[in-house]
Amino acid sequence: MSPPRTQPEDRRPPPARRPGGRTARVRAQVLDAVRAELGEHGFDGLTMDAVAVRAGVHRATVYRRWGDVGGLLADVLDAAGDDDWRPPDTGSLERDLAGLNQEIQDAMAARPPIMAALIAASFRSERAAAAQRRLWEDRYARCEIVVERAVARGELPPGVDARRLLITATAPLYHRLVLLGTPPDPDLPGDAARTAVLAASAGAFTP
Amino acid sequence: MSPPRTQPEDRRPPPARRPGGRTARVRAQVLDAVRAELGEHGFDGLTMDAVAVRAGVHRATVYRRWGDVGGLLADVLDAAGDDDWRPPDTGSLERDLAGLNQEIQDAMAARPPIMAALIAASFRSERAAAAQRRLWEDRYARCEIVVERAVARGELPPGVDARRLLITATAPLYHRLVLLGTPPDPDLPGDAARTAVLAASAGAFTP
Questions:
Q1: Shared domain check, B111 and B71
Q2: Is A85 on the interface with B (CB under 8 A)?
Q3: Where is this region: Disordered (chains A, B) (predicted)?
Q4: Which residues of B touch A167 (CB under 8 A)?
């Protein structure tokens, strides 16, 4: 859901400029290294030692603070949710949902495939899986305003189950791209958005 | 999509009664062992040696024929598609789709969690992932008759994109149960079926 900030930073500011002091600086360096290693090598190539070397941080610090690779991934996912992302606000429910779906498809197709690698990694580590679910929960919660605005504009009746509508709009993207492994389809974001809006207009998400 | 025959066989017939001679018998014993090991230990506990021991087959045979754990999983998935499964035929599109979704939810909730473990394993092995996609493709192809029958009954206009309708009906199940990790919801199979039918009736899958 939405491209969380999981891209490696191309122009990483010098560590000294990281806000929050040494602890925050070390965390930022380590998480940047995790994203870069994950993008280059995937989960199977991700090791605590490689992350420590790439981050320029003592191995002992990485082990003590993150425990294992699952802990590193969980922290990357938690950090991804620590942003000010907001869903599209185009004045139309269908366009908002299509824009949201386009962001999902773009994030899944991005190279290096950080988002895809994080989702795959969540099948390897219970800590990463829990963090991935927290991130999705947060993203869906932030997206509910898309539905609330549509109700306020009179596009939908009050009482619409926003979460079910949002899942209906986005699930085909995740199902096709993550599970079925179909290549990105330029029509898919808009088609799935339109389908959800038609279903909503027909009363699918109203008690 | 649908519960493929991935359950370990509780009352396995004696090997000598397996049809197809020794090669088929060995395959059946090995795949039963893979399902049982996967159900008990998940992917991380699945080893070639444990499968060989459990199946009562020489290690060398297992390595020669399946190569690695990914090869074993791919063959389990290919074997799952080698059945005569057909989607529900209730006389109503919505009930057919709800029944299909119920089968998916039941399979995902089954204990031991063979289907869930196979999906998770498809993130670990490219061979397993390709086999999982073949199985889904086969299942969705078999389900298209559900839509064709609805068109024949006059429930839907001709020209409906059956695959898009089927993905819309089933994707929320996979998204919630596999990715979002929400517990099975007794309303979900029917709600997702109804949503897809309402969208179809509103023209979502017609050019």
A1: no
A2: no
A3: 1-23
A4: 172, 175-176
Q: Give per-residue burial for B146-185: e unless 16+ CB within 10 Å, then b.
A: bbebbeeeebbeeebbbebbbbbbbbbbbbbbbbbeeeee
* Rounded alpha-carbon distances, angstroms, from residue B170 to A31, B61, B139: 35, 39, 12
Q: What is the structure's pLDDT at A14?
A: 46
Selecting from B133, B174, B204 the residue whose C-beta is nearest the C-beta of A181 gives: B133
- Among partner residues A172, A196, A201, which is closest to B167 by beta-carbon distance? A172
Over residues A17-29, the pLDDT tens digits come to 555 788 899 999 9
> Model ipTM?
0.88
B196 in any annotated domain:
yes
CB contact (8 A) between residue B180 and residue A123 = no
Q: Does residue A178 belong to the interface with chain B, where contact is any CB pair within 8 Å?
A: yes
Among B23, B49, B80, residue at a domain's last position = B80
**Section B161-167 average pLDDT:** 98
Last residue of some domain: A28, A55, A80? A80
* Record: contact B170-A168, CB cut-off 8 A: no
Average pLDDT, chain B: 91
Does the residue B181 lie in any domain? Answer: yes
What is the distance between the alpha carbons of residues A158 and A150, in angstroms, rounded to a whole number? 9
Q: Is residue A184 part of a domain?
A: yes
Tell me the residue range of the domain where B116 lies. 93-201
- B29, part of any domain: yes
Q: Indicate whether A190 and A97 sit together in one domain.
A: yes
Distance of alpha carbon A30 from alpha carbon A58, whole angstroms = 10
